[in-house]
Amino acid sequence: MEQRGLCLSLQDCLNSAQCIITGKIIIQHSPGKSGPGKSASVQLYSSTQVDPNTKKGKLSGKAYLKHGKSNKHNGIKNTTYKLKFHVEPDFGTPGAFVINSQHKHKFFLESATLQISEHQTVHFDCNSWVYPFDKTKRNRLFFSNTSYLPNQTPNALVELRKEELASLRGDGTGKRKEWDRIYDYDKYNDLGDPNNGPQHARPVLGGSEMHPYPRRGRTGRPPSRQDHQTESRPETINLDIYVPPDERFSPKKLSEFTENSIQAAVHFLIPQAKSLFQENSSSFESFSEIRDLFTSKKYQVVEEWVTHKLKKLVPDKLFKEIQQTSKENPMDFPLPQIIAGNELVWKDDEEFGRQMLAGINPAVIRTLEKFPPQSKDGTVSSIKASDIEHNLDGLTINQATSQWRISILDYHDYYMPFLKRINTKGVCAYASRTLLFLRNDATLKPVAIELSLPSSSSDEEISRVFVPSTQGTEAALWQMAKAHVAVNDSGYHQLITHWLKTHAIVEPFIIATRRQLSVMHPIHQLLNPHFKDTMHINALARSILINSGGILENTLFTGETSMEFSSALYKDWRFDEQSLPADLVKRRMAFKGTEKGSGVQLLFEDYPYGADGLDIWVAINTWVTNYCSFFYTDDDSLKSDNEIQAWWSEIRNVGHGDKCNETWWYKMETRSDLIEALTILIWTASALHAAVNFGQYGYAGYPPNHPTLCRKFIPEEGTLEFAEFLRDPDKYYLKMLPEKIEMTLSIALIEVLSRHTSDEEYLGQRPSLRWTAIEQIQEKFKQFSEDLQEVEKRISERNRDPKLKNRWGPANIPYKLLYPDTSNVRSRGGITGKGIPNSISI
Questions:
Q1: Which residues partner with 217 through β-bridges?
Q2: Is 503 a catalytic residue?
Q3: Is 423 assigned a catalytic role?
Q4: pLDDT tens string 455-504
Q5: Catalytic annotation on 689?
Q6: Which domains does the chain have, with CATH numbers?
Q7: Residue 563, exposed/middle/buried by CB under 10 A (0-12, 13-18, 19+)?
Q8: Is residue 705 among the annotated active site residues?
Q9: Which of 98, 155, 288, 602 is spaced 20 to 30 A from 389 at the CA atom?
Q10: Which tops the pLDDT comparison, 30 or 354?
């Protein structure tokens, strides 16, 4: 059983032939389990005195954990142990310590503080699991919070620094065990499950020209029996897939995550299964029936279905928890914001356009450069000027285009190569283009939707164009066209904007940082909070979300092609274009200008994601510039940093090895290279992920607003389907949407993904005030926090400005997905939480 929370405080050294340092250790541990006691010992390493025999810092005598005294803090049991360290008079300043545990359980070490003199303390931010020595066969080493570039490392710590990094790299062989602290790379060869049948085979992503992909953390599981290129998978849902111990959820977070997942299963999946057994229709009969999912108690748990289905999928312990929860807590989920004020506002054209600027996927829309739109291969769109000129508020198409007034949401080229495979599984999908007109009040008016299909008999395409209408048959067809656009947007959002461009992209940076940058390296200390829990949530995603037969394959219209689709779009990915200013300019939503800080000027002010995002970007960039400029006095000091050069080389050549020959990688020869790369990385892990993740329940929690698939094409006039549509357009629309089980499964997933956990850490915040020993850096970080508070004020002012209509829109949802909320950190949590987490932690 794990134990959590070790805090070490060491005090004055007596001025005698042999000094005694007293201290205390605090361990948080599980109920009913004893602490490590005298089975754990600690020794200090000097940072100033070298042992001539080991070439490492001199060691203190051992101090054992004993005489524990227990208390509770915030409901967590703590046990305090007093310590005495014996050191020689010339021992000097401690720079590291090792702990040896002969106890049978692991425990969690949070921090250590050494009181060297009345005016000098040495602090250690540990935040790591300590495993029994009989498992690890080595002592656990911790360095102080003093940062050193490699060539500035005290002689007494040089060998320790090298040895620790070498141990983290491992040798690339063997199956990883829970206690291994080893970071290594692997391809995405664990998504398929060919042992479960050929229908579950999936291509390996990464390492080939056809399927390039970022690398993920290696687990070393053996190959499957049916395909030796594919890693074997557990037979049940596995929440304990290997990630290095320092990357794992805290026990508190794992408990919350499991509980939220169980609640999702209980409140939607199991009740919905009952309706499938009892009702004739697999579709919802009315929009009010969909709304009942959030307000009605009529969906109750079916014990026989649970026993029949879930027991085969989940471990016994989790199965029992689901059973118990379903009996004790039959509750409802909150009403999604999109229908909280007006149940029909999601149908509004202005709201449809606003969500492209302020919804959960606001970084795809771009300004059209040339009309008509065309594909990369030169194929021209079937949208004609006559289709839209009557909707351009008196402008001609040439005038509107030259004034940058036509926007496009273009998914045509992305989806077209996959449609023949997608549309063989009972799914009816198009590749869409949507044109919108930028009105004088900065709202977007959709003016045309083109839906395209590949021809079954030739390489040509079959396209239909729909234009807005407010009544009759044309209005109903227009609503269906918008639904198909929203389906395209849902797939792109989950697989590209959310998964690929945040989760998958960042993982290789984490692995390279752990392998190549010592914890003493200042850049490691800068990046560390932005990596919290990411490898663990990604491992869980590979286990239950993006795998063959996983939740995304069962809810998104892309089905079993989902991860291949994300691989295809990785071919176009560029790290430098993940810079927000560069992204905005590329999409012609901004232009290069003299705007202070960001260097770009938005095309129009009322672009909530762009306006708030640039403020956050500037704050991050200023903080990173101040931080890096302190440690690197010039470009030469960066070029001579062997750890940072190895780090960047490994990111380019291994972590993103399929992109190693691209010319757009920063050369990492100047401070500006490093500053820009770090700003992009922190922006991606914090603000970008927050913008595309935490609004999901508010907008997509009501599936008609953001459906994940369609089961019918838009009917053609003269067909039986068209006659069915004419008889009851609403019923036809509902039949077009996902079936009940698919719809409720997507709601359940979104509910879990949209939650802030109670132990989340937020941008501009650190769990420890002593995370760095350098006062100047602490001052710069304080300034960063103050800058974010100023951003909050500006966002609040924008949200109060009646001229900025896209800040609220017809749905009356204020744009707060990039609101730092620095003053409300301790009271957050739950699905309505605000703020920008430091990392991709959910």
A1: 185
A2: yes
A3: no
A4: 887 778 999 999 999 999 999 999 999 999 999 999 999 999 999 999 99
A5: yes
A6: 3-149 (2.60.60.20), 256-326 (no CATH), 348-468 (3.10.450.60), 577-632+666-695+758-842 (1.20.245.10)
A7: buried
A8: no
A9: 602
A10: 354
